[in-house]
Write a structure and sequence with these properties.
alpha/beta, single chain, Alpha/beta knot, 11 helices
């Protein structure tokens, strides 16, 4: 008996899943690479692109974005990485360990899907961050990330073209993540939304108030403030505060800061 085969692209993620995954390109130098990344996103049905401080002003006109001109047109442009990932509750940096010592967990690309699936299931938003072509993500960039993911490559040529790296990562997520039913997943998001991890922007606001409190309390000399700020960003992402926890902590530190500024009241 003839059995109808499922469509060849039946394994693509549901739109509600794809729309909760942001591809973030940090300081890309070559517009052709931005266009290639956009084309790869379109291949797998992703549309949420953010470009941080691009080197070239006319990157939206990249000819390499074959089949994805609207995606480039609608991409967000921000001055900084924190702006680009402000709504993300789980941020993944990409790169190699050739020139850096990681300060957060490192996993190979094939192991990424379960982390992304868990975050999507609890109603979160995932940011997949790619660094500049020359040197990749900096130590400062990575301090905003929960994980660092490595694409398995030959040690003699560890770096990949930006567009190819985006394509490989999105293919791996498409291959490994289950295609959830949009209706059931929408209801699931509504049920668990209040317990999702805090968004990156909320963590940054909390970190700012904690730092102000540390300064007011004379916690450390001024020369250590930049290092403390870096370590604080990593700490807040390591402990996985929920959005409710982050609000409570923000209120506590604001009260402490006010009392330090008004000791007689």
């Amino acid at each position: 008996m003839y059995r109808r085969q499922s469509p060849y692209n039946g394994c693509l993620l549901a739109e509600i899943q794809r729309d909760r995954i942001d591809v973030v390109l940090v300081s890309p130098r070559n517009p052709l690479n931005i266009g290639a990344a956009a084309r790869a996103m379109a291949n797998f049905g992703f549309a949420q692109l953010a470009v941080v401080a691009p080197f070239e002003a006319h990157w939206r006109e990249a000819k390499s974005a074959v089949g994805a001109p609207e995606l480039l047109k609608n991409a967000r442009e921000t001055e900084t990485l924190p702006e680009a990932i402000a709504q993300c509750t789980f941020v993944v940096g990409t790169g190699t360990l050739t020139y850096r010592k990681p300060e957060q967990p490192v996993i190979p690309l094939p192991a990424l899907a379960p982390f992304v699936q868990q975050e999507l299931q609890r109603g979160g938003r995932v940011g997949l961050v790619f660094g500049p072509e020359k040197h990749g993500l900096t130590r400062e960039d990575l301090s905003y990330c929960h994980l660092l993911v490595e694409i398995p490559t030959d040690a003699r040529q560890p770096s990949m073209n930006l567009g190819q790296a985006v394509a490989v990562c999105l293919y791996e997520l498409t291959r490994a993540l289950p295609n959830e039913d949009p209706d059931s997943e929408s209801k699931h998001f509504e049920d668990v939304g209040a317990g999702r991890n805090s968004a990156s922007g909320a963590l940054d606001r909390l970190a700012e108030v904690v730092e102000q409190t540390m300064t007011a309390a004379g916690y450390s000399p001024r020369i250590m403030q930049a290092a403390n700020r870096h370590d604080l960003r990593l700490l807040l992402r390591r402990i996985n505060l929920t959005s409710t926890d982050a609000k409570h902590a923000l209120g506590v530190f604001r009260r402490i800061l006010w009392k330090l500024a008004h000791p007689d009241r």
